[in-house]
Amino acid sequence: MEMVDVVVVGAGPVGLLTAIELTVHGARVMVLERLAAPSTAMKALSVGALGSEALQRRGMGAALATAEARSLAAIAEFSAQSGTDLAKRASRFSGHFAGLPVRRDPQAEPDRCARMVDQPAVEAMLGERALALGIDLRRGCDVTRVTQQADGVEVEWTSPAGAGHLRCAYLVACDGGRSSIRKMAGFAFPGTTPTLTMYQAIGEIDHPERLLPVGWNRTPGGVFSCGPFPGRLFMLDFSGPPADRDAPVTREEIDVVLRRVSGADVRVRRLESASRWTDHTRLADSYRRGRILLAGDAAHIHPPFGAQGLNLGLVDAANLGWKLAAVLRGDMADALLDSYDDERRPVAEAVLANTRAQVALLRPDPQSGAMRDLFASLMQSDDATRFIAGMMSGLSTHYDLGPGPDELGRLLGDRRIRARTGEFSLHELMADGKWVLLDASGGQEASLLAAAATDGIRCVALEDSPSLLIRSDACVAWVGEAGGIGGLREALRRWFAPVPEAACPEPSRA
């Protein structure tokens, strides 16, 4: 029977990045995808800061820039058509919360922001990167059975080429909100049922000027928005969930819903593409059941506000990949995988909560309108703006890794580390999957200790900066105090194989 280290089920963005992370860290991976070709369905229009940084760390910075340039050109075209300066608006706002614009924080790093790259483009660049790495990606493969055993998982599938069967050490389910793997493996998926229908479409409208102003418009019938690309429509229909979620979205359906929600006398002349979804919100009871793990929408689903789902899933992949590879190499015990659930599930809980809140603020009833007006007033506060912006971008994500030294301890478990430190780009330093030690200790004691523990850390000498040990997923794993290395030995023991005592200098008492 064929054998690989990991089978990843699903070749969407999360599945592909998971496979890339595992491969970069030395694992042998096979990806099984039910669809015969990449999905072109309209989903996220952008990718958040943490998600785009995960892509840049794996060599996709140039592809991101190229794809974003295409998007910005389309936005410029729409701006000219609509008479709205979207570039100027973007310079003032960092996103939205329930359609309420979030003012851009002047103290925020300008290069740590969402990138205007849609989900199909993200999936395309990930596919190219996976191909370059030689990852075994098999399309048209529908997994029909998974059997978990004490020392591995057996996977069976069907495809046009015939049935397949192999054995792997671990399986990662990235097969979406209706994950068959999650169901086969017995994960619970509790949450709330849908109450509304959302639409996203590209088409031609007979009187687009009747749908102005550009942006989110809340009406007695629901919510609608046109742009930021030519022909793009977004609608929230609060009349209830669709009778058949899987039925094709027709021009006639979009035509009727658009008039009801907007209240405008418009007609859809032509429909190029369309998708519908709901505010169905669920979270798996655990991200791990033995040797089967969940990532992306297989683990959590929620209303798609602010492209948080794509960002959330990509960071799931970045968090899980290096940990699973370390276990496969025998560098770390299987228990390391429990930290994936410990760190990522609370982040998903917070996203589910904020998207439910956004649905409540968007409802067309008077009570929700009063709450929305109050919330809009609160968002004029700088503190509220920073809180909302950090929450929506994911930059305020903080893993509980324990207390750190003095006032610098707040950095431990943090993701708000500058992408560029002096002349160094963290993305470039971490391209091969290694951790980075920014060493400001006396005599480079920190680097000596790290080198004695593992060859998986790249050490960079710095001055006038706290020493930081940064994980492969860009999370701070250790913070040094006042030029010393106190606590570094314990951090290395936690995340790497035991440090040889004889090779370790004693911690500085500075």
Please specify the SSE layout and strand pairing.
Layout: E1 2-9, H1 13-24, E2 29-33, H2 49-57, H3 61-82, H4 86-92, E3 93-97, E4 100-103, H5 119-132, E5 136-139, E6 142-149, E7 152-158, E8 164-173, H6 180-185, E9 191-192, E10 197-205, E11 217-219, E12 222-226, E13 232-237, H7 251-262, E14 268-278, E15 281-283, E16 288-289, E17 292-294, E18 300-301, H8 308-329, H9 338-362, H10 366-378, H11 382-393, E19 420-421, E20 424-425, H12 426-429, E21 435-439, H13 445-453, E22 457-461, E23 468-470, E24 476-479, H14 488-495
Parallel strand pairs: 1-2, 1-8, 2-5, 8-17, 21-22
Antiparallel strand pairs: 3-4, 6-7, 7-8, 9-15, 10-13, 10-14, 11-12, 12-13, 15-18, 16-17, 19-20, 21-23, 23-24
Helix pairs in contact: 1-5, 1-8, 2-8, 8-9, 13-14
Residue share in helices? 25-40%
Shape: globular
Relevant CATH superfamily of the largest domain: FAD/NAD(P)-binding domain
- The assigned CATH architecture of the largest domain is 3-Layer(bba) Sandwich
Reported by name, the CATH topology of the largest domain is FAD/NAD(P)-binding domain
Distance between the ends: 57 Å
- C-alpha Rg (nearest Å): 24 Å
Quaternary arrangement of the chains shown? Answer: single chain
Structural class: alpha+beta
Mean pLDDT value = 90
Largest sheet: 8 strands, mixed
Q: Tally of extended strands?
A: 24
CATH class of the largest domain: Alpha Beta
Sheet-strand content, in percent, reads 15-25%
How many individual domains? 3
Number of helices: 14
Spans of at least 5 consecutive residues whose pLDDT stays below 50 are 499-510
